[in-house]
Amino acid sequence: MKTGLRVFLLPVAISLALGACSTTAPYQRPDIDLPPSYRGASSGISGGRSVALIPYGEFFADAVLVSLLDDALAHNYDLQYALKNIDYAAQSLRQAKLGVLPTIELNASGTLNRPSDNSLSGSSIKKSLGQSYSEDYSLSLSTSWEADIWGKIRNRKKGALAGYLKTV
Q: Which of 162, 147, 158 is closest to 96 using CA atoms?
């Protein structure tokens, strides 16, 4: 069985080795008739003006194509999402820049307490106030300011700036 396999594989190996030794002609680039410049007079682009800087309304002459592009840009959810992300990053940067300012808080609250008529406090409130409930109102004003000793606010501003630049 082994000799039959060798007899079969030997001619195959020899033919593959001889086929690999054949020489081919070196590659020659074909002659192609190219225009003298990439941006010719037919494209409507003047001199050294970049295609990226031309508004698409001027670049494309077809009015139907321009209206389709306008409609696609107006209803492009990915573009709207990207613009909202840029707006969010800009607002985060503005908020981080205001981190060195003091914060002022104003709190107002009101409470209505209605104890049971069967309790001692319920009957005493009714006798003293002439009503079966008590009202409690409070108003507070507080201010605080954080000194940036360890650079927390500065690093927050740097991070917000990096996030904004990354998003834009």
A: 158
Six token digits for residue 1? 């069985």
For residue 116, count other CB atoms closer than 10 A to its CB.
10
How far apart, in whole angstroms, are the C-alpha atoms of residue 132 and residue 114?
7
Q: How far apart are CA 21 and CA 118, in angstroms?
A: 111
Model pLDDT for residues 25-55, shown as the tens digit of each residue: 788 888 888 777 765 555 555 556 677 888 8
User: Whole-prediction pTM value?
Assistant: 0.45
What is the domain range of residue 115? 110-144
Q: Is 38 part of a structural domain of the chain? A: no
Q: What is the pLDDT of residue 117?
A: 67
Mean pLDDT of 2-15: 78
What letter does residue 26 receive in the DSSP assignment?
P
Domain count, the chain: 1
Helix orientation angle between 77-97 and 152-167, rounded to the nearest 10 degrees: 160
